[in-house]
């Protein structure tokens, strides 16, 4: 590749209209997501069920040491996001990590990544409607008007499906306000908690103190092993931070908005996870938490604000629905990316006049209805079943991001590809560290008998992927052939 071709290729998907394979980077999508919306989607995507519901179980297992688990995992997440940012600035496309896996590892890996990430969001959607149905029980469990958990899950799935039949700009606006509610609630809880600890007002004022972080059997009350075993719950809480990569094809100015969103990761983790947990565990000793109970609701009940607990329950309900809404957004686009590359049913490549992948979203929403059946059959265990499988499938996308970034960096350093304008600091060592950490979490999931079910399902899914890949490849070899991602000068000029 000549230097002129490299330069023109970098003029890239977002401005030249090419994604490296001759296709429009937005591929028919409307670039309706502005900086304000991208920022809040990035923030809100990481604040959901894992923090508001899953943290209760993790606190019960690890105690205050959960704070350290979130801090270390948060550092790994930042390494992953910077690796993704480097790829996004090299070539911002709607297929994101699926497309990068296709380019740097081969068609098979792009195929597996696209379908696995789609499966992740379908399973996550089931998780989120399960959590939302659980939150509804907060108001109905002691009343005569009890709503079955499966009925709530069904209603939420249907409502969110129709919410996705709108323009991407309106979707971004809704997500902005959903995220604003979550952010406001967490900051409000932190400020009230600080007031309880320092001034001593409310019923919890006499016992609220930072010494609660170590005075009840120490910072590691159940040992380091128990802390390590909570890492899958911690990593699940961070799943969806990579969603900003999927928005690349619909962001108004991806070269500016995406780096800003990625660089907010450290302070988001510091405030919304570490800061919130420090305050909560100072107000409420870890020994008082029970699995399946939101730590935020428990904190407000301890403070003596029953109305506050109801408000927080509404906020976490909003958080779960927001995350599920984002899932429906991403699944439709991932299916369409697969269809455009000949690795999925062609009819899923259709867009509405408003630039929405309606058919892909409809297929995904239909499969999310499986969550209704799970809630009907096992209302008490539904959340734990789907969390473990969502974690392993979601981490696959992170693995592909890191491996693709390592391959890209190697080629860029050799001068075969243009250097990204947003290079990951410390790479390749930071990417290798993140990969090692992810594999450690997978090993720990195999040790934990409650999480092991996801590893039993993984080989089955892998077998389906391998068999389907070779069957489809035999029918359409061209769709699974390696593509030339080089954009030549004359091709770029035609797009202007």
UniProtKB/TrEMBL annotation:
Top-level lineage group: Bacteria
First-listed, main subcellular location of the protein, grouped into a coarse class: membrane
InterPro entries noted in UniProt: AA-permease/SLC12A_dom, Amino_acid_permease_CS
Cited PROSITE patterns: AMINO_ACID_PERMEASE_1
Residue ranges of coiled coil: none
Keyword Transmembrane helix attached: yes
Pfam families for the chain: AA_permease
Domain Amino acid permease/ SLC12A, chain residue ranges per copy: 38-476
Compositionally biased tracts (Basic and acidic residues): 1-11
A GO cellular-component term linked to this record: plasma membrane
Name used for this protein in its record: L-asparagine transporter-like permease
